[in-house]
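Regression report. Comparing outputs from two consecutive submissions.

Submission 1:
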Amino acid sequence: MGWYGYLGLWCAGFGGVALVGPWALSLVHHLPENVRDTRRRRDTLAAMTAVPGRVVAVLKSAGTDEDGNTLTTIVPVVAFTTHDGTAVTAACEWGIPDPARSYGRELTVHHAPHDPTDFTADIAGAHRAWRQGIVFDTLGFVVVAATAVVGAVAL
């Protein structure tokens, strides 16, 4: 291999460490915090209480983006009463299938006992979301750390 081959390896190694190293350090810093938040959310989901609810309204808003495309947002509004008698009416951003046609639909709402505004209409989807977050963070860390190691070895 000529000098240009060694120069290429050195540049690749330096690039791997210089570009990916800070990203790996950032992930090392943020991963424990994300794990703590995810565990806290998992515990909250496990403690959620199921109550009957109903979609009492469907909010629709329209706007345009910078390209002139029309964007429409549809958000159902859910009403439910907790076991201790607290009435809650709030927008349900996700978890209701076919939100445009959900007006009047009866559904089961799962809410946190200490905060009824922390609720979901799709408990299984909420569980999937926290699992996917941990998997994504861990895989990202492994890929970035491996790239940094390969770059350091190539130096």
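Submission 2:
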Amino acid sequence: MGRKLVTVSNSHSFVSEQFRTIRTNITFAMPDQEIKTILVTSATPGEGKSTNVANLGVVFAQEGKKICIVDADLRKPTMHYTFQLQNLRGLSNLLTKQYDLSDVLNSTDIPNLFVLTSGPIPPNPAELLSSKAMDSVIRQLINDFDMIIFDAPPLLSVTDAQILSNKCNGTLLIVNSGAVENASVLKAKSSLEASKANILGVVLNNYKIPVGEYYDQYYHK
């Protein structure tokens, strides 16, 4: 693996357990509707959204579901590095009808987990993501997979995540605890609300739990 995935390298760790907790929370977030498409984004760059996407994909696949991670960051894609994949063709080629899904989909070393890389960076990411071609790709993915997790650019940088959030069943906002300003998080939340996104919740990344607190929470709930 290019980027260390704790859910693979140490599946019994506390952090891996937290990813399984997020998986459970997502499953129960909308009891009356099946969640098939999830967008993951952040307010600003460097908050760990792509790492969260990869690990969430792993824990859902470990549950036996057929999962597809889509690198929808057509500006600074990283998912191919994480899974050590070629990125010569991917989502951008699919949206411009150069290839079929079967031509660009990648299997991984993890059973049930597939990755659709970004493909070559296009000159018009927002236009491609808002196109009818994107709607068609999402419909096809829904038919082929139990869940699709989209990695999108930060909300305060470009409009891409807003566009995609409106097309997905739910959105997760990754917040790098102690590193991002509250005003930025609130602005990101407002932009999602403006696009009528269904915000499933916020994931606090790099949150430092005081020593002993996890033990107390587990045994004294």
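Expected: both submissions complete independently.
Actual: both completed, but the second showed a warning that disappeared on reload.
Relevant detail on submission 2: The radius of gyration is 17 Å.
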